[in-house]
Amino acid sequence: QLQLVESGGGLVQPGGSLRLSCAASGFTLDAFAIGWFRQAPGKEREGVSCISSSGDKLYYADSVKGRFTISRDIAKNTVSLQMSGLKPEDTAVYYCAAGPFRWVRSSWYAPHLYDYWGQGTQVTVSS
């Protein structure tokens, strides 16, 4: 059974850092692109970052470029999102999702291109 489980969310002060993890089971990371999305209350789900199934293509939303870094650990079958310089507007539930890269690569930020989703982890940036 294919499953994604996020962890690492929490409460952090503005300017702080958090590292989110997405543990995959039931498949290997070279089979799917993995995207990170977030959804704040009353807002649509938005793409934050994506790593291709080959791991050599990385994508970021303009709002997080230079602050967030996506990476993966093949041995642990885990994708991470290192977030630094956090702002109150980064507050949201963060989700990881898996989708075929041949579909995802054209519009990696589009949630409907991803087939499998985790349950989400809350990130709150507040003083």
Description:
By secondary structure, this protein is mainly β. It has one helix at residues 101-104; strands spanning 3-7, 10-12, 18-25, 33-39, 46-51, 58-60, 68-73, 78-83, 92-99, 116-117, 121-125. Strands 2, 4, 5, 6, 9, 10 and 11 form a seven-stranded mixed β-sheet that branches. Strands 1-3-8-7 form a four-stranded antiparallel β-sheet, with no helix packed on it. Strand 4 (33-39) and strand 5 form a beta hairpin.
- The total of helices stands at 1
Q: Give the % helix.
A: under 10%
Helix-strand pattern: EEEEEEEEEHEE
Shape summary: globular
Straight-line N-to-C gap:
40 Å
Q: Indicate the radius of gyration in whole angstroms.
A: 13 Å
Largest sheet properties: 7 strands, mixed
* Average pLDDT rating: 96
Indicate the structural class: mainly beta
The percent range for strand residues is over 45%
| Number of distinct beta strands | 11
Low-pLDDT sequence parts = none
Summarize the structure.
The protein is mainly beta.
List keywords for this structure.
127 residues, 7-stranded mixed β-sheet, 3% helix, globular
Helix and strand layout, with pairings?
Layout: E1 3-7, E2 10-12, E3 18-25, E4 33-39, E5 46-51, E6 58-60, E7 68-73, E8 78-83, E9 92-99, H1 101-104, E10 116-117, E11 121-125
Parallel strand pairs: 2-11
Antiparallel strand pairs: 1-3, 3-8, 4-5, 4-9, 5-6, 7-8, 9-10, 9-11
